[in-house]
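Example 9 (inverse folding). The structure is encoded as follows.
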């Protein structure tokens, strides 16, 4: 993304709020996506100044038949192999749809992500999915992790606590698009309250 004249160093105009549901994750290792795949994505392009949504996308992805499958992951999101076989896109189709959204808003510039544990979880699965088709996404050096936002501002330790504190109802099955929306709204509300306090 080109530097915007008159703006501070590191400035970005848009953020990509993301959340993914997966077939599982590697608990002991540098890359939590190793051996697993994403099975659903929620993506929301938002204005970085207002943190209001511009465009969003939800995709479900068929299990590739090779990735590991953990029952705990399915319990969290409720998406079975059978359901995904009938309703999900292929990984290639998902990359086409997701890539089109990214290109519309970020072109060949760097992407700033926003999400809950986005740097320790979602970004790894996003890279893994696109790398299957030899596509290297460009990411900026700065991302917005609502886990950190929640801990520093509200002393919450997980997404359930943060989202409920912000005013969302307790979740049942995790839905990637809903979780991306809640992460974005948590960041927006936190900023709004902080700005209101500064004005008083």
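The amino acid assigned to each position is listed next.
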């Amino acid at each position: 993304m080109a530097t915007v004249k008159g703006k501070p160093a590191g400035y970005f105009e848009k953020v990509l709020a993301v959340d993914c549901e997966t077939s599982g994750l590697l608990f002991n290792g540098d890359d939590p996506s190793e051996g697993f795949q994403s099975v659903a994505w929620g993506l929301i392009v938002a204005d970085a100044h207002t943190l209001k949504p511009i465009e969003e996308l939800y995709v479900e992805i068929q299990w590739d038949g090779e990735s590991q499958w953990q029952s705990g992951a399915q319990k969290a999101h409720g998406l079975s192999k059978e359901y995904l076989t009938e309703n999900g896109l292929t990984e290639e189709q998902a990359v086409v749809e997701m890539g089109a959204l990214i290109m519309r808003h970020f072109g060949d510039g760097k992407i700033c992500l926003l999400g809950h544990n986005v740097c320790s979880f979602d970004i790894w699965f996003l890279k893994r999915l696109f790398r299957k088709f030899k596509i290297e996404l460009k990411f900026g050096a700065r991302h917005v992790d609502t886990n950190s936002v929640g801990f520093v501002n509200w002393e919450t330790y997980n997404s359930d606590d943060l989202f409920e504190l912000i005013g969302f109802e307790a979740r049942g099955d995790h839905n990637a698009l809903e979780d991306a929306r809640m992460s974005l709204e948590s960041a927006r509300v936190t900023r709004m309250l902080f700005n209101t306090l500064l004005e008083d």
